[in-house]
Amino acid sequence: MLHQLLTEKWALEPRFHERMAMLALSDKLDFKSFKIDRKQPYFEAGSGNAWYYGELPKMSTKKGMVAVIPLMGTMTRNGDLCSWGTEDVGAWLLEAYADTSVIGVVLEINSGGGSVDGTELLAEIVRQRNKPVVAYVLGVCASAAYWVASQCDEIVMESAASSEVGSIGVLAMHVDSSQAYEKEGHKITIIRADGSEAKALFNSVEKLTDEIILATKAEMKPIRNEFVRQVKAGRPAITDESIFEGGMYNGAVAITNGMADSIGFLGDAVTRVIKLDNQLNAAA
What we know:
By secondary structure, the chain is an alpha/beta fold. The chain contains nine helices and eleven strands. About 35% of the residues lie in helices and about 20% in strands.
């Protein structure tokens, strides 16, 4: 997991990434305690993966139930760092889509983002919804989390001042640990087999060359381009290109620049689901 934290490509709010990296490097996180032995999810509504779906909160309305699905903490595909995986969240969404007692979903978000792996799939599951899905932002909805939120019908932010969205972009973090190893008396030698000269060049004990940095940027560019493309498709009201440079915006600003739709609490997000469901039924 430490390797994933420090070498994975992340769509993550950078302030959060830095805090997590420093905790890891200072041995403040007990990685041995993290459990990743849950059942592998299945992406079929009604299948075994969504065993936890029945435990999720569902708010009763006159029209039917509104499922409240959490997207909290660091986003990883299979669920690490004390958070459910994006595959879990995707499976719950599919289960809600197939649940005849459910008229729509509130995707409750408080996340600084996470790994790119699995994010695009979750965003696509949201995009292909057959019921209204409204994102409800508690504190922060950044980077990978905003990638997913941008595909919802609407985005409701809890606070005009303290709730934030944005950080549209991709980063990779390199930590040069060579001096720390040397201080402890360790000298590391990497031996690559003939023909494997390009193997694991992005590591924590060898200096990053300009060529490796350029190659890493080239790998991240198509991910960033797809991120921006999907946000623009989901949030066509965004017209200011500087928004895609990675800045963060509070609720009030996000509404004016097209990144969000309204300020409210969970009940307001549920109300929006009901109104969107009424509009779908009226159009049918």
